[in-house]
Amino acid sequence: MIQTVELVAKNIKRLREFKSFSQKEVCADSTIPQGQYSRIENAKVEPSISTLEKLALVFEVDIAEFFKSDDLEQEVNLPLMQKIKMIDTLAKDEQQALLKMIDLALANKRMKDNLQTLIAQ
Amino acid sequence: MIQTVELVAKNIKRLREFKSFSQKEVCADSTIPQGQYSRIENAKVEPSISTLEKLALVFEVDIAEFFKSDDLEQEVNLPLMQKIKMIDTLAKDEQQALLKMIDLALANKRMKDNLQTLIAQ
DNA sequence: TATTTTTATACATCAAAGTATATATTTACA
DNA sequence: TGTAAATATATACTTTGATGTATAAAAATA
Questions:
Q1: Fewest C-beta in 10 Å: which of A106, B1, B96, B98?
Q2: pLDDT for B1-23, tens place per residue?
Q3: From 1.10.260.40, 3.30.70.2570, 2.60.120.280, 1.10.150.170, which CATH number describes the A4-67 domain?
Q4: What is the C-alpha to C-alpha distance for residues B47 and B36, in angstroms, rounded to an integer?
Q5: Residue of B20, B49, B99 lying closest to A80 (CB–CB)
């Protein structure tokens, strides 16, 4: 299992090389010292959130992009999100019915969690 | 424009409260000192990548989840969106069951739409 | 090979993590 | 109710690691 810091480093380097930037160029636009940037690409350090923020601006991506693994994306949420948007197009009563079902499922989950907690005590 | 650190803090706190965990419980499972966790939720510090990694494990989400903005909530109705995020925390089989129900509702809607279109012609 | 360009590393400084403790909040019992 | 005990959250202080600065090493170009 690849370490997250290395994944982030690889993604950052890949983005830079895709844009054919030198480290210096990236840093000129981001106020990150080139030396620090070098350490980030080589996973010698764990870049802070504000550093990632600066890099995301330069590369014009979301920060989340840095954490995406190469192997087939676990985009379980995407299809769900599409469905959700469609739910909005349902009639009010249909929407309510669906929401009730969701509530049930979630209540069930919470109940199980609470039981777990009790057992753990 | 909301700061990324604050966004991350909010997302982390929301995930914890949904699971009805105390800070201590989260920390027991993650080796993060409770004091440090408190500072993270209050955006007093920028959590490191390895800290985010530990939290992602406890909450059973991708790290990218911490960086997702609430903007999506403006596209869809708000209470629904909150439920959706909760669905993510359900077990796989429960999730599948719920998705099937959603599919059914949507298929039904499509069918009616198609009928409407036919009638209108 | 000299020069320029690119990337990496040594060292000082500041912020996150770790430890201990304090403060707040909830709960249990008289 | 009031209050003691327990639980939950926040904060001071030390340690460790990321950032900032300067410089060195490596690679590319002429």
A1: B1
A2: 568 999 999 999 999 998 889 99
A3: 1.10.260.40
A4: 9
A5: B99
The highest-confidence range among B56-60, B93-97, B111-115, by mean pLDDT, is B56-60
Interhelix angle A4-18/A34-41, rounded to 10 degrees, is 120
CB B105 to CB A84 under 8 A? no
- Residues of A with Cβ-Cβ distance to B46 under 8 angstroms: 48-50
Residue B24, judged by CB atoms within 10 A of its CB (0-12, 13-18, 19+), counts as: exposed
DSSP B44: S
B30 Cβ nearer than 7 Å to chain C strand: no
**Which CATH code is given to the segment(s) B4-70?**
1.10.260.40
Residue spans of the domains in chain A: they are: 4-67, 77-120
3-state SS track over A26-90:
HHHCCCCCHHHHHHHHCCCCCCCHHHHHHHHHHHCCCHHHHHCCCCCCCCCHHHHHHHHHHHCCC
Residues facing strand D, Cβ within 7 A: A 31-36, 39-40, 44-48, 50-51; B 22-24, 34-36, 38-39, 41-42, 44, 48
